[in-house]
Write a structure and sequence with these properties.
Helices cover 31% and strands 26% of the residues. The protein is an alpha/beta fold. It folds into two domains: 3-122 and 296-325, Quinone Oxidoreductase, Chain A, domain 1; 126-266, 3-Layer(aba) Sandwich (Rossmann fold). The strands form three sheets. Strands 3, 5, 6, 7, 14 and 15 form a six-stranded mixed beta sheet that branches. The radius of gyration is 20 Å and the shape is globular. Bound molecules: NADP nicotinamide-adenine-dinucleotide phosphate (NAP). NADP nicotinamide-adenine-dinucleotide phosphate binds next to helix 2, helix 4 and helix 5. NADP nicotinamide-adenine-dinucleotide phosphate is lined by residues 44-46, 125-126, 129, 150, 152-155, 175-176, 217-218, 239-240, 242-243, 264-266, 317.
């Protein structure tokens, strides 16, 4: 019986309290299945929610943590002809912080071999979310303005780069001055500091062109500022709640500016879109990763044995994702 390492939890709670590095049995691929070996996995805010028990979809305990990673097919079960050993694929989503896992060959999402492993590792959640936020909610004409908070997040950096390629203009809210230059270097039109009263100068920033789309992953005052900056009939999409505070809406903007408030959840969107819809979005994401339109920074890489340091690092101010490699 082959043993492998996995970062597991037996109860819901703060990651540093409930996670353990364990030796677990390596599974053999059954009929119609493949076994995938992890190359690199991401730490995302939603991992905290899943480990903590607050996310929209929770796992049966005990569970292996992590939901995003890239791997390589290393073994195939009987009756598998659609995938070959050596194919680069999305690691099975139900627990990416482990060395290997098995999955049905029919569910495999192939990753182009020429996308760098680090980029592929975080290609499955944040870039497609950014793509959908820009393309699937409001019909934006080239030259349109949008505003987003958490401009330095993986979603935010994807939005900046994709929006530039699509011909949209961006205002990105951040919490630290030192982020202004790197975001502008990636193509951000304006970068503003949270709490600086920037919404009052929004007409100066856009030359009087109304903002049609606001992307909110923070909540609280940051979300309210966006609504104040939105033009008449504009839409605010809430897809995250980093501040842990309620999203508060200034009533007068709902009434007098006819602002629309909607939500977005990639898990639900991709389920509803089915394999074809998912593939279309992923093809667009990989095309941008391959031609250099989209490149996300890596802040640091840790081994499984160093997972506690990785999680502590992830909770610090940073520029880029923290990756885990076995
Ligand atoms: N609904 C969906 O389908 C979906 C999909 C993907 C992501 N998301 C959400 O999108 C958000 C970004 O995810 P990500 O993986 O791109 O993030 P990330 O790269 O891990 O970056 C985290 C971001 O959150 C900011 N932040 C953290 N705590 C904050 C606070 N208390 N107040 C203000 N800003 C705070 C950080 O700013 P500093 O650098 O200043 O700390 C940073 O910009 C998360 O809320 C995530 O859950 C949702």
């Amino acid at each position: 019986m082959t043993q492998q390492k996995a970062i597991c939890h037996h109860e819901f709670g703060p990651p540093l309290e409930v996670l353990r590095l364990e030796d677990v049995k390596q599974a053999e691929p059954q009929v119609g299945e493949v076994r995938v070996r992890l190359l690199a996995a991401t730490i995302n805010p939603s991992d905290c929610g899943m480990i903590g028990g607050s996310y929209g979809r929770l796992r049966k305990l005990p569970a292996v943590a992590g939901r995003e990673g890239v791997g390589v097919v290393e073994a195939i079960g009987r009756d598998v002809s659609s995938v070959a050993v050596g194919a680069r694929v999305r690691f099975p989503e139900e627990g990416t912080w482990q060395e290997t896992a098995c999955m049905p060959a029919a569910d495999v999402l192939l990753v182009p071999g020429d996308v760098p492993i680090e980029q592929a590792a975080f290609s499955f959640i944040n870039p497609p979310t950014a793509y959908c936020l820009l393309k699937k909610i409001v019909d934006l004409a080239p030259g349109s303005w949008l505003v987003q908070n958490a401009g330095n997040s993986a979603v935010g950096l994807s939005v900046i780069q994709m929006a530039k390629a699509m011909g949209f203009k961006t205002i990105s809210q951040v919490r630290r001055e030192e982020l202004i230059a790197p975001l502008k270097a990636l193509g951000a039109n304006h970068v503003v500091i949270e709490g600086s009263g920037w919404a009052k100068q929004v007409n100066d920033l856009t030359g009087g062109v109304p903002i049609l789309l606001a992307l909110n992953s923070i909540g609280g005052a940051s979300a309210s500022d966006q609504i104040k900056a939105l033009g008449e009939g504009g839409t605010q999409v809430t897809f995250g709640g980093m501040v842990g505070d309620l999203v508060r809406f200034p009533t007068r903007f709902l009434i007098f500016n006819d602002v629309r408030l909607v939500g977005f959840w990639w898990d639900q969107w991709s389920q509803k879109a089915g394999p074809q819809g998912l593939n279309k979005v992923m093809t667009a994401v990989y095309a941008m990763m391959r031609d250099g339109t989209l490149k996300l920074p890596v802040e640091a890489t840790y081994s499984f044995a160093e997972y506690e340091a990785a999680i502590k690092h992830d909770q610090q101010p940073r520029f880029g994702k923290v990756l885990l490699k076995p």
